[in-house]
Amino acid sequence: MVSAKLKIAVLYDVWGEEAPAPEVEPKTARNKKKARHKNNRREKEDREEIFEALEKLGHDPFYQVLDGNLQCLTSLAKCGADLVFNLTEAFAGDDTKEMNVAAYMDLLGIRYTGGGPHAHFLAQDKATAKKMFAFHGIRTPFFATAYRGRIEHAHDVSFPLIVKPVWEDGSIGIDAASVVKSVKELMERVEYIQTEFDSPALIEEYIEGREIYAAILGSYEHAQALPLVELDLSRLPEGTPRIASYDVKFEKETLAHKLTKSHLVEDLEEEMVAQLQKTGLAAYQAVKLRDYGRVDMRLTPKGEIYVIEANPNPWLSSKQEFAMAAKASGKSYTDVIGEIVEMAIARYAAEGL
């Protein structure tokens, strides 16, 4: 247990309307587009809840903002925190620079929670993550990647397929039209992904089944899977793909969001639960996640488990799946925040930092 009072920076990113005018303009229109998505999907309550939990634990928290302005990096370097609770998901609205924030803190010797730069790269590049899963014998849907007429990787895939940006997270770029059943639809969707996001398209076999999340707490061999949570997509209108699209997750006024709900998994045999948790742990370790993470899986009617993706530093709102799983394991929200802090401090202590 961490007995000392720590000065902890709650680090988060803002861009666009929330942020002051940047010193450096974004290089592409894609960054501006992504910033709007970021502002929509991030709720302030998560960082406020974490701040309050840290106070309850006896620490001295303060907010540290990355707003895309070069001065914010200098401010981070000089903030004097004993530990940074890293909630960043981008820099200057660009998701691909999320790993750079972690790398910057590594260079400065700043201690922080959650995944390091390797984990962010491996997990965020969905194609690379899937190759890692396959290398470790973890079942994941067959896939191909395409960009501007160039095929970068390809299994022999078959319809139906789901098409999404390789680099985006938070279901950005995923909607009902993402699931395609013909070559024409596939070509149109690939063109949309390339035009809208300036990103390679991940063309993945669509797996029909239940959307199961494994929340993982811990690092390396000490990581443990918490009780499983399911995003119930069964009430979506007939003909609507059963996928965790952007509107399902974040557009609260849409029918899709109102008809879907996350709940604890309570109807599976213990053997299947154990198999899902084991698979989640293997995926977590394959892409080098640490402290906490969430692995998204599909469970088919035949009982086959497919890993879809692994998420470093998942959303820590008390209303979201990670906190829901932790509560089911007997941990309060404050307990979870405290454990994440303790694990990060212990990890750096073990490394002599």
Q: Can you characterise this structure?
A:
By secondary structure, the protein is α+β, with helices and mostly antiparallel strands. The chain has 3 domains: 7-114, Rossmann fold, CATH 3.40.50; 122-139 and 208-349, D-amino Acid Aminotransferase, Chain A, domain 1, CATH 3.30.470; 143-205, Dna Ligase, domain 1 (2-Layer Sandwich). The chain has 12 helices and 14 strands. It has helices at 29-41, 45-56, 70-77, 98-108, 117-124, 126-135, 183-197, 246-250, 255-259, 270-286, 321-328, 333-350; strands at residues 7-13, 60-66, 83-86, 143-147, 150-154, 161-165, 179-180, 201-205, 210-217, 224-225, 229-232, 261-264, 292-299, 305-312. Strands 9, 10, 11, 12, 13 and 14 form a 6-stranded antiparallel β-sheet that branches. A hairpin with a 6-residue loop joins strand 9 (210-217) and strand 10. Helix 4 (98-108) packs antiparallel against helix 5 and helix 5 (117-124) packs across helix 6. The protein is globular and about 60 Å long. The two termini are 17 Å apart. Mean pLDDT is 90; it is low at 21-42.
Question: Would you count the extended β strands for me?
Answer: 14
- The portion of residues assigned to helices is 25-40%
The number of helices is 12
Overall tally of structural domains: 3
CA-atom Rg in angstroms? 20 Å
- Oligomeric form: single chain
Terminal Cα separation, in Å?
17 Å
Helix/strand-derived category reads alpha+beta
Question: What would you give as the CATH superfamily of the largest domain?
Answer: ATP-grasp fold, B domain
